[in-house]
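Side project, low priority. Logging it here so it doesn't get lost.
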Amino acid sequence: MSATTATSQARDLLGVSALSNRSLRTWLHGLPPVDQVGAEARAAALGTRSIKTTSKAWAIDTAISMIDLTTLEGSDTPGKVRNLCAKALLPDRADPSTPRVAAVCVYNDMVGVAREALGDSGINVAAVSTAFPSGRASLPVKLLDTQDAVAAGADEIDMVIDRGAFLSGDYRTVFDQIAAVKEVCRSNPDRADAHLKVILETGELATYDNVRRASWLAMLAGADFIKTSTGKISPAATLPVVLIMLEAVRDWRALTGAMVGVKPAGGIRTTKDAVKHLVTVNETAGPDWLTPQWFRFGASSLLTDLLLQRQKLRTGAYSGSDYVTED
């Protein structure tokens, strides 16, 4: 069953397409409440799991393959983006066996540069859209923003929800905007549909219950991925939040038969952090999510530590950060 078909069936099953905002609010607030103490205790317990050396080697390579290598600064230049793409193609110049990353994530105006640099490598080009990172723009502007990225060759769109609308209880507006952006992701006839990653900005949602509601709302509207954060707001990705989002995609699959990906972004900097997340993925959603197709890390600085730890496993010596390029 395709994700589009499953989403349509879920809408019909849940009656969302015909619901007013008031009814949608009632439905979302009828989701089981999150046990805050239980979620935090579960995440803490999973975070203490240790893995064997052979498993660590697998975990490092898997985490590298899941990274969205990102530059989202006002000072970005074509040269900086090309350098980032070169690192995506060959993360460790001393070891060509190092896996490539999943995607390079840039602003819209750099999509063409990244597309040309990556060619047919299989590494995706992701573009942040819909007035990233604030989401403060009208829907026509958001749709044009997305259309521009898709036309330039983006394989993935990372959109931000209107947190103001969500926090004021205007769930229908958030739903309609996600659904409209999803339609634009299908608008380039020369390429496959761009995947839609919906950023919840969980650091602004205030409660775990809101994280659960926003996750379900995004999936109901057609998200291919749900993503924690822009990386511009603190706190960004936390393990309890990722746990709750993984529970949501697990339950969505049980309901619809379709899988939705999860992307924690921001604050994940070490190999130990990455391993904690991989363990949480395996124990919560299941091993089917342990691929770049269904789980990503939005954490460019994480790659440096993963490469250093990989070198240590391969050579027995810790080389230090001077031996790994930063861009």
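Brief comment: Residues 239-256 form the longest helix (18 residues).
Revisit when time allows.
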